[in-house]
Amino acid sequence: MKSWATKWKTVQLPEEHYKQVLTYIKTGSGGYASVSEYVRNAVRAQLRKDMGVENDNK
User: Fold this and answer.
1) Helix extents (H) in the chain
2) pTM for this one?
């Protein structure tokens, strides 16, 4: 793997939350293409709020 490449990990998400996010994505109002994209953005926003982390690697 190249040194600049992002390393990915997976996490478990309760099915109920997955379905809620998927329903939201299907409305098209948020501009998200996938549940993964939504969750990455939500985690990034929470890290900024809680820890002041400014890592915007996508």
Assistant:
1) 15-27, 35-51
2) 0.76
